[in-house]
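Course assignment 3, question 2. Fill in each field.
Student: A.L.
Task: Predict the tertiary structure for the chain below.
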Amino acid sequence: MKNRDKEWKHIVQELCRAGREVAAWDYVTALRGPDTSREWLVKAVFTAPLRGLSLNSVVTNTSDFERLSDESIVKAFRLVCEHRHKFLHYLIHTESAWRTLHRKVSFLLRGLISFEPPEDLESWAKEYKALVDEWLDRENAIDTGGQDGRV
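Answer field:
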């Protein structure tokens, strides 16, 4: 089953079966999303792909991420850069989750967390979308560094 077709609890189980309990905790803490008044777009970009499918249509999930335009993703990147102090705690949890799931996504998020904003947010946002889509198409939730034939 591809990651895009899994529910969040299946990803937690996969992490735990692999002996990655700390990674499972990092993943679960990233699922909540930010607690700000401007949270929907940021949640759709950074939290929704982690959530997988949801039986509750009210919960932001992978299908919400897949419907976003490139411009919306760029807007979310700008928003978290402009209001980094409001999103920092949330971004740290999100980056920690991606560190186990897809290291390249983690590296991009570390750039957003840093106090030097990236010069070309549009390119970063497009790369983020491509990397997250790559992860959603994989069957293994854990980044194995290509050791299983998948990246």
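Instructor remarks: The chain is about 65% helix and 0% strand. The CA atoms of residues 49 and 62 lie 4 Å apart.
Grade: pending
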